[in-house]
Amino acid sequence: MTDLPGGTQEDDLLAVLRVLAERAGKVALAYYAEAEEIAVRDKADASPVTEADVATEDFLLEALAKLTPDTPVVSEEASEAAGSTPEIDVERPFWLVDPLDGTREFLSRTGEFTVNVALIEGRRPVAGVVHAPALAMTWTGGVGEDGRRQAHYGETDRPIVPIAARAVPPEGETVIASRRHGSAAELESFLAGRRIAERVSAGSSLKFCLIASGRADLYPRFGPTMEWDTAAGQAVLAAAGGRVETLDGAPLGYGKQGFANPDFVAYGRGQAA
Question: Residue 37 to residues 32, 107, 139, 209: CA-CA distances in angstroms?
Fold first, then answer.
């Protein structure tokens, strides 16, 4: 894992990312109080973007430029504004940023929106933070060069505690699905033959964090996502002992053409059927 300036190691990197994400969350919350009046426009893919998305991203881009000035950043709103993702050497470390994942949840005031920052090395997320500002919750996760894994959860400004994905309980899997996205038919086909104990819905990258925290077991995603949507959550889940795979069983990798993801499945410690 890339060190911070001065040789800071991965545990300190995760602590720094937590601080950055929680500060960015305060930027988003300043707009959340006025979500009913906030200016909204539709992007090319018909998804909404608000002043909160842009302001939160501006904060994170400035902070990451100071933290690691030689490491490029690929971020959602900057890429949309430019009309394309930036040209970077994806074989070298880079950041992926989704400043406000779950903009519809933000506008609906469900609280299920997140700030997401992930460091990509070797085409995999090696460190990430997912912060839910309205819920005052933060998850961090990383895997060091020595293979040491760290996954933690903490309420804002409170001590962190370790988390771990669980083995599938005897009564069956808890399946978590997107509240607003994905194909119901493909989901039902994928789940056919599995022992399902419960189904729950959630917004944004919280779905990865619920599996990482041992509260769910399976998140199949059928439909378009971008790498900045998944990288931070995947970093947390991988550090907690879970995994994210494409439908053919390959690890979900990063630095793909256009930074678009295929369909994927996130697992806890259970085995694919």
Answer: 10, 10, 30, 30
Stated as kind and residue range, the H or E segment containing 10 is helix 10-32
Q: Are 204 and 102 in contact (CB under 8 A)?
A: yes
Strands 73-75 and 48-50, by their bridges, are unpaired
Q: Exposed/middle/buried for 40, CB within 10 Å: 0-12, 13-18, 19+?
A: middle
DSSP alpha helix (H) spans, 37-151: 51-67, 76-82, 103-108
pTM: 0.92
Tokens describing residue 20: 């950055």
Are 113 and 102 spatial neighbours (Cβ–Cβ below 8 Å)? yes
Nearest to 78 by CA among 92, 91, 65, 93: 65
Return d(Cα 25, Cα 29) in angstroms, integer. Answer: 6
- pLDDT classification of 6: cutoffs 50, 70, 90: very low
Q: Which amino acid is at 122?
A: G
Which residues face 154 on adjacent strands? Answer: 138
Amino acid 273: pLDDT: 47
CA 238 to chain centre: 12
Residue predicted with more confidence, 49 or 114: 114
Domain 173-267, classified CATH 3.40.190.80, yes or no: yes
User: Would you state the structure tokens that stand for residue 262, as one six-digit string?
Assistant: 């295929």
Q: What's the first-to-final CA gap in the chain, in angstroms?
A: 32
Kindly list the domain boundaries of the chain, sorted by start residue. Answer: 10-162, 173-267
Which of helix, strand or coil describes residue 191?
helix
AA letter at 236: V
- Partnered with residue 176 across adjacent β-strands are 200
Superfamily of segment(s) 10-162: Fructose-1,6-Bisphosphatase, subunit A, domain 1 (3.30.540.10)
